[in-house]
Fold:
Amino acid sequence: MMRGGAATPLQQLVAQFGSEVIVTEAAQLAAVSVDHRRLYAGKALALALPRDTSEVSRLLALCNALRIGVVPQGGNTSYCGGSAPDESGTQLVLSLRRLNKIRNVEPINNAMVVEAGCILADVQRAATNAGRFFPLSLGAEGSCQIGGNLATNAGGVNVVRYGMARDLVLGLEVVLADGRVLSTLNALRKDNTGYDLRHLFIGAEGTLGVITAATLKLFPAPHSVAAAFIAVPTPSAAVALLGRLRERCGDLVSSFELIPQVAIDLVVRHLPGTRAPLAGSSPWYVLAEITSAIADEPLAERLEAARADALESNLASDAAIAQSERERQDFWHLREHIPEGQRRDGASLKHDVSLPLDRLAEFIDRAGGWVRDHVPEGFLVCYGHVGDGNLHFNINQSAVTPAAVTPSANGLLARGEEIRRAIHDLVHAFGGSFSAEHGIGRLKVGELARYAPPVELSLMRAVKRALDPNGIMNPGKVLAKD
Ligand code: FAD
Ligand code: 2HG
Ligand code: ZN
Structure:
């Protein structure tokens, strides 16, 4: 307590919750104050480590009364700086890491109830152990948390068949800004009783409340699986190939990823033990996977037939079908390590965009041409979940700065704003989205303000005011501060 004066917000937090829950130790605060990409070096007031939903509830009630900004944090793997506090030293980071229980697995209901702090890989494992499948899968699954996945409405590599995180949720438990607990945790498939509130919190990136638990949908376990790594001449051939594969295999197609040669080169160069699946080189590749819940389905034969068809119609120039589980995992290892290969190669600009599938190839042509002509200090690494029309249209810093370009320590990053504008304007003109799966966070607040239709923005603000009138939930993220 301050002598002769009122207690500070931090002192009140410590007084009510104790040092077991309110951590002020400098090294721990430093670790939670920087985002995954190190774009923002924030400064936390303290780190809250609540142990259960009721503690989250009491914490938010106090923060609301004292007007303390609260930054929910899961695995802190977000690409948009959403889970880091600002530089003011006034925001409380609220980590969900102690809320990590699988509360219930219900095979008959094809559902499970998990706490927000469960690591995604643990959720997948629990489903598998119950003879079921939880399909959300992404490169950060060993460290991101299900609460963070839902708060960002994460995508990943199985969206083409199972949808985004939003599509995998039956119910939510959320602590509102004033501490009240909203619980819709049930395994009902049908429940048309008024507004479906859960969807407000999914994708809200912690700006409307704290997700503390969720009822997730489970699916039949995929007992048969086959994967192919296919060399394709162009993105347009990749899109046509997706159509053919769907005609042959229907909704057995669970992943369809586009990978350029340059991405394979980065992974092979920087990650020891990796190798290209096909001899020779092709400008583009597709990693396609089909799965079935029926055991011993001859899926490799289906892919063989698709391969013959693709080669004959010049949609592909070569293809390898995984001959073992090990080989299939090698394909995925290569794909999932593209971000790491990019990171090890140097600085990069990331654009997580989506396009209508029928304009995706044209977009790559146009935007790729623009990068070649206007960004001599960088090179394009464009890959992604092409089955969903989602491209990671990334640009890496070239090792050697061309003589025509003024040398600077970080030539590419210095032009980030201008390059982003050109690419996002083009995406907009193509009817696409400037944020397909990574969200808005802090990084893209200006982009949302620029591209969202005014009616949409004003409704978002109205929802924010209704649920968080004092603006304590993740201030400065998604919507600019009023
Ligand atoms: P955090 O980064 O901690 O938080 C993200 C946002 O959610 C923040 O705004 C935070 O305040 C909020 N939040 C976190 N937990 C809660 C909660 N319980 N309640 C309310 N708000 C909360 N993303 C994809 O969509 N697809 C991919 O394929 C993909 N691949 C990736 C690969 C790598 C190698 C990496 C590093 C990241 C990848 N991402 C991908 C981005 C990231 O992993 C996802 O956005 C993930 O869903 C974030 O989860 P998290 O637990 O790390 O959340
Ligand atoms: C992926 O699909 C992730 O690998 C990361 O969404 C994309 O690093 C990126 O740009
Ligand atoms: Zn992705």
The chain has a mean pLDDT of 96. The radius of gyration is 23 Å. Residues 36, 71-79, 82-83, 96, 116, 138-140, 144-145, 147-149, 151-152, 154-156, 205-206, 210-211, 339, 437-438, 441, 474, 477 surround flavin-adenine dinucleotide (ligand 1) (CB under 6 Å). The longest strand covers residues 209-217.
